[in-house]
């Protein structure tokens, strides 16, 4: 049996975690529409739902919040590792290196929820510590009774975050937590299927997420908007890129053949918070020009805005620097990866497709 390049349309797993209707632009986590969850549930409740298949009761939620907070404290060894990595090493590589140092036996097969919590919790602490180290600032400890998103902002900026920023980040975290068998989640499942330890599966997924065609796109979006510079230049700039066979970052998707619902939801979140900002208006206008151009240049392709276009907008709105865009995506997507690793572990068979040899037989 031969399948499409890029495994397009190939079903390789049954899952109860999420459903995507790419024609209607709908994303569902365990029976609940992701957009509704972003409006009505905390991020911590959504993670619990993804991992356990149901919402926590209030005692379970308190215990989960407490466990997240307790696991955000960096050990002295981890602080040293974060400082010792040369300053020009990018943040995704720093996270990989730091998480590698956690690969002791307790993370081994089968994956446990306890270790899952510790990996999810420690990642924002690693990012924030590294960011502050690069700025010559001291590490900021998380505060109990602050939400996961609020503590992330606190640990980065060193001051209590603005409530609107916390709400915007929580919406983003929920909307970007899980997305079926995207490249990084598939990677996590492949590694888990070898019965490797949980941290190895997460580290491999981080590698897949980093690429500009996947989670590396938001900083490229901001770079594109910077290079375009003004609305007058937008069409000319993008037409030239398309003529050279390049892609416009933040557009196109393997599954969505209509607008990515997460892009819509994030646009609304930014519009409510900082809609009047000139750069946001600029992004919205450039999007319109890009969509018209893509329709003209690729008439047979249904290319729409994807989540990464407005990820750039929302992370800029909450004053995160560009170097934290993909790492912030990783913080939330770890929840989705873990849900899939746990599901893989329940009914595991090693993932091992076949290649067709076309080389020499000499
Ligand atoms: C969280 C996320 O990962 S969301 C995705 C983030 N990535 C980006 O925004 C990067 C830009 N987009 C892309 O590279 C692609 O659309 C992907 C990687 C998301 C999906 O890729 P695929 O499903 O393999 O589509 P593929 O790359 O084959 O594109 C199909 C056609 O649409 C075109 N196309 C797809 N996306 C774009 C784009 N952003 N700009 C211009 N043309 C595009 C391709 O050139 C191709 O046209 P052709 O058949 O005439 O050569
Ligand atoms: O599903 C995909 O291929 C990419 C994506 O949008 C995601 O991982 O959120």
Q: Could you please describe the fold and organization of this structure?
A:
By secondary structure, this protein is mostly helical. The chain folds into two domains: 18-211 and 322-346, Citrate Synthase, domain 1 (Orthogonal Bundle), CATH 1.10.580; 217-317, Orthogonal Bundle (Cytochrome p450-Terp, domain 2). It has helices at residues 34-40, 43-52, 58-70, 76-84, 91-100, 113-134, 148-157, 163-176, 183-193, 198-209, 217-228, 231-243, 261-274, 278-297, 307-317, 325-346, and strands spanning 18-21, 26-29, 32-33. The chain has a three-stranded antiparallel beta sheet with strand order 1-2-3. Helix 1 (34-40) runs antiparallel to helix 8, helix 5 (91-100) packs antiparallel against helix 10 (198-209) and helix 6 (113-134) runs parallel beside helix 7. The protein is globular and about 55 Å long. The chain starts with 17 loop residues before the first strand and ends in a 16-residue tail after the last helix. The protein binds acetyl coenzyme *A and oxaloacetate ion (OAA).
CATH architecture of the largest domain: Orthogonal Bundle
Radius of gyration: 20 Å
CATH-defined fold name of the largest domain: Citrate Synthase, domain 1
Record the strand order, biggest sheet: 1-2-3
Query: For the report, how would you describe the main beta sheet?
Result: 3 strands, antiparallel
Sequence of secondary-structure elements: EEEHHHHHHHHHHHHHHHH
The CATH superfamily of the largest domain turns out to be Citrate Synthase, domain 1
Quote the beta fraction: under 5%
User: Number of helix segments?
Assistant: 16
Q: Given the C-alpha coordinates, what overall shape results?
A: globular
What is the count of β-strands?
Answer: 3
Low-confidence stretches: none
Structural class determined from secondary elements: mainly alpha
* Small-molecule binders: acetyl coenzyme *A, oxaloacetate ion
Whole-number average pLDDT?
96
What is the count of structural domains? 2
